[in-house]
Amino acid sequence: MTESKRDRLFSEVLADPSLFTFNEEVVEVFPDMIKRSVPGYSTIVAMTGLLAQRHAVPETAIYDLGCSLGESLRAAEAAIPSNSCKLVGIDNSEAMINRAQLQFSNASRIDWQLADITAVKLEPSSVVILNFTLQFIPVDQRLALLSRIREALVPGGLLILSEKLAMDDPTMDHLLIDMHHDFKRAQGYSDLEIAQKRSSLETVLIPETADDHRARLKAAGFSRSEVWFQCLNFASLIAIA
Ligand code: GEK
Predict the structure, then answer these.
(1) How many domains does the chain have?
(2) Ligand 1 atom, smallest distance to 93 CA
(3) Confidence of residue 189 (pLDDT cuts 50, 70, 90)
(4) Structural domain boundaries, residue 107
(5) What is the largest CA-CA distance in the chain?
(6) Probe residue for ligand 1, chosen from 38, 68, 161 as the CB with the greatest number of ligand atoms within 8 Å
(7) Assign residue 235 a region: left if phi > 0, alpha if psi is -120 to 50, beta otherwise?
(8) d(CA 215, CA 69)
(9) Spatial separation of the C-alpha atoms in residues 114 and 98, rounded to whole Å
(10) Cα 20 to chain center, whole Å?
């Protein structure tokens, strides 16, 4: 996993903890931030590689949509030794794509693209990775995106969808949110950092329930889906085209 500077972006009182964006400052600390914020992140990345290995079909594309620095796609790249698939990482943060390109251009087969995943044309693919990205797409655009992914996938192709979840039961929702904050405290984040990050993300990251996701996957034309991993309110689903 990529090493990075320690995330201290929310450690001082901010007069205006404005909306979270994936800018240069965030890119600097991103690998540290995501590891200390998402319980199970390393497991999901490693398993993404194995899932991609199992479902990769020669002469098709493997996409990582909202790839950030490409941890998931690089796990897939390591698991698929031959040149048989085209590996494409797409993100609409220029800072992210520039950093990914700079860090990995020599050692990697990945094609990094700066684009909006709600608008980009997808080529026939066998694996599409959406790890912690759909949650940042406006809710009313999510079905259209999943439908386009479904159309791009070859029969039997795989979508890996990892998300922060909301729970149906408000009591359990609060409990898992509190436990997530306990996890962040155990990772060294202060109460101030947790509170300011939360308000910065509030209107940007919109979680939904696992049932919402599975109903939408069905509406998008996926034949079956399953939650294969969950730690607190963070989960990963697989869906078969
Ligand atoms: C990982 N998958 O390390 N088009 C393209 N990219 C977008 C869009 C969009 N419309 N909206 C948001 N993004 C990664 C982690 S981070 C998750 C993904 C997080 C991008 C955004 O720029 C950011 O890089 C990424 O989605 C979400 O497994 O930080 O919690």
Answers:
(1) 1
(2) 22
(3) confident
(4) 1-241
(5) 52
(6) 68
(7) beta
(8) 30
(9) 9
(10) 16
Secondary structure (DSSP) of 23-70: -HHHHHHHHHHHHHHSTTHHHHHHHHHHHHHHH--TTSEEEEET-TT-
Spatial separation of the C-alpha atoms in residues 195 and 175, rounded to whole Å? 16
Write out the H or E segment, with its range, that includes residue 214.
helix 210-219
Give the length of the chain. 241
In tens, the pLDDT along 81-129 reads 777 899 999 999 999 999 999 887 666 789 999 999 999 999 999 999 9
Residues with CB under 6 A from ligand 1: 22, 34, 66-68, 71-72, 90-93, 96, 116-118, 131-133, 136-137
197 CA to middle of ligand 1, Å?
16
The CATH code of the domain that includes 67 is: 3.40.50.150
